[in-house]
Structures are given as C-alpha cells and as structure tokens.
Amino acid sequence: MNRILKTIAIGLSVLGFGFTCTVPAALAQACLDRYQIQEAVTSGQIRSLDAVLASAGVDGSTTVLNVEVCDEGGRLVYIVGVLNPDGSAQNLVLDAQ
C-alpha cells in the first residue's frame, strides 16, 4: 500500500497537480534527506544513483524527474520518477544496496 500511495503522489506531481496529499503516519515510509543520501553513498551503505540505474538497464536518454531513498521493509530503495523517451512517465523502485 505504501508503494501505491507513493506512486500516486509522485504521479500527480509529475502531471502537475498542485495539491497536497496527507498520508497517515502509519503508512509513511522513512525516507532520507539529500544529506543523508550523500552520506550513505559516500560511506558505501548504498550505491550511487548512476550505478543503480545502469545495473537496472535504464536507458541513458531517460529523464530523471525526482529521486527519493526510502526504507522499504528494512531495505533501502531508490524511488525514481522518470520520463521515458516515448513521453510516458513512470516510477521505478530499485534496490539501493
């Protein structure tokens, strides 16, 4: 359910809807801020976004719209909103470790 809510929220932001969606605390994922992400990459706790995208076979012409690193069931994942070359938008959930 967390992934569905996150997908909806990212999808709406990609489409430009300007409203705020409140997610109950019990459903919210623990996500890292940008400083924590950089520290995690530097310390080797997680792989860089470039490395994760390359290993997932994401086309280099894909436009990254937004990125989060969140704890999902005890593992860190990248949640990446992308715009594909064909114009379609999607969210990728990729293992960060």
Write structural notes for this entry.
Mean pLDDT is 80; it is low at 1-10 and 12-27. This protein is of the alpha+beta class. The two termini are 22 Å apart. The longest helix has 14 residues, at 2-15. Helix content is 32%, strand content 29%. It has a domain at 29-95.
Describe the structure using short key phrases.
3 helices; disordered N terminus; 29% strand; 97 residues; alpha+beta; single chain; four-stranded antiparallel beta sheet
Listing every helix as H and every strand as E from the N terminus to the C terminus, the arrangement reads HEHHEEE
Percent helix: 25-40%
Query: Main sheet: which strands, in order across?
Result: 1-2-3-4
C-alpha end-to-end distance? 22 Å
Please outline what is shown here:
The protein is of the alpha+beta class. The protein contains three helices and four strands.
